[in-house]
Amino acid sequence: MELDRCAEFLRAHDNFTIITHRRPDGDTLGSAAALCHALRRLGKTAWLFPNKGITETYLPWMEGYQAPEGYTGEVFVCVDVAGREMLCRGYDGRVDLWLDHHLDRGEPRENAVVWPDKASCGELVLELIERLGLAIDKEEADLLYIAVSTDTGCFLHGNTTAETHRAAAKLLDAGADLPRINKRIFVAKRRSRLKLEGLIYDSLESFRDGAINVAYVTLEMMRLSGATEDDCEDIANLAGQIPENRVGITVRELTAEPPRCKVSLRTDGAVDASLLCARFGGGGHRMAAGCDLPLPPRETAEAIRAAVEEAWA
Q1: 191-312 is classed CATH 3.10.310.30
Q2: Of 23, 157, 209, 274, which is most buried with the most CB atoms under 10 A?
């Protein structure tokens, strides 16, 4: 679907439910809430489907957006959701419109606006709001800056483009509170997070003279540090801090019985992270992707590293 037709669709309907993805990050939450706010400015009724996975980091910006109990929408819009398997836990209904910057994971999505060349879904939603005939206001600027900055690692990742910076500049001109957002999301860390980082660095394994680095986040590490889900934002970027790094593999243990681990893969383009993770049922972008494996941490790391070595060869 072209963006102008998408804008026409939104103008023609009402009573929206906006759905984010499981284990929500700043892009899905910021983009969804900004769209919700813009629809309300058009006189529409719009709410986010309640996502119980939202961490304390993002809760201050989500106040007033999650649907009250009993609300039943008529139009269901997914934002930054790559496929049905990534839908927010608790939602299994139909989807009338998809807004995303990920390529399809498995089954093609109907009525979708997908811009895979964008670093974040926030860039798409920014342009969509303007196509709706609205100037970005302060609230939307904050939310979309969260979306754009978090999906680029505060503009450090290789997916950052000149267009990304132009979008960020537009949001700053509209009043985005850069100092507050950057400090809360990228600078401030609880003591438990600092303890967890120490354990992660101790676990780090390097291969190919430091070009491939594997970091572990086990349930035991979480227990020893006293860390919670709130301490795991951007944890996947730690392995990439080795100067020679080209591929960072972060293995996070989700459950011990049965064993299950989440893999986050970050590359500089040496291998295609999205294609590699797709082999294990996951996906994402060329330089950042993820997947889940039904294996313990060590076996998960070995399986992913073997795939990386094969792809590299």
Answers
A1: yes
A2: 274
